[in-house]
Each structure stands twice: as structure tokens, then as C-alpha cells.
């Protein structure tokens, strides 16, 4: 089985723009996408960092939210998760082009699965 590549981490923040500017200014990360709600997406060219704007009417606390794997075979990865007794990953219903499926590990942590990777489609993944 090929090794999955960890390529995406996500945090929920009270002020996504301010936090993104911190990582940009302190660590040289590049902001490559901004959602209409203010969520920010940065990269170091290898891993992307999603900073999701917390919604006052949402039920997601600030802090760590999820991570994402770039895999060579999405269907095979999903089959392996189901065979391990986990729910089948669900299609991500979003306009963000960064991940196709959301899955859950045995402890209840969210993670994404992507066959195309997490950087913008015009960049190398």
C-alpha cells in the first residue's frame, strides 16, 4: 500500500484573517485562497493550513478542526476504512476544491481524503 501524504491541517479561529496574517508574517506562509466568510488558506508549498472562521451560530469550537491526507487511491482508502469498521467517508459538499471526502477515525477525529491534493488545482501537489 502506498503511503498517504499528510498535506492539510485545519484550525477554527475567532479571527481567521488575523491568525492567517500571523502565520504569513511570522513564518512566510502564502495565503492562496479566502472564502467569502473570511476563512483563510495558506501554504508553505508542501502542507496547507486552513484557518476556518468561527461562526457565532455554529457549534464548532476554536482550535484544531481536522487534517487531510492526499492518497493515490481514494476508493481503496475508503474501502479500508469501512473494512476497519468505520463509517464510509462522506462527500464534501463545499465549493472549496481542496478535498473530496470527509472521514472519521476511531477516536472521532475528522480528516479529509483527497485524490488530487490540497493546493490549488493550478499548483503541483
Summarize the structure.
The chain is α+β, with helices and mostly antiparallel strands and 125 residues long.
Description:
With 125 residues, the chain is α+β, with helices and mostly antiparallel strands. It has one domain: Roll (2,3-Dihydroxybiphenyl 1,2-Dioxygenase, domain 1), CATH 3.10.180.10. Helices cover 18% and strands 34% of the residues. The protein has 2 helices and 8 strands. Strand 7 and strand 8 form a beta hairpin. The longest helix is centred in the N-terminal third of the chain and has 12 residues, at 16-27. It comes from Kutzneria chonburiensis. This is VOC family protein.
Specify the CATH architecture. Roll
CATH class: Alpha Beta
Number of strands: 8
- Alpha plus pi helix count: 2
Structural class label: alpha+beta
Order of helices and strands: EHEEEEHEEE
Gyration radius (Cα, Å) is 15 Å
Let me know the average pLDDT.
85
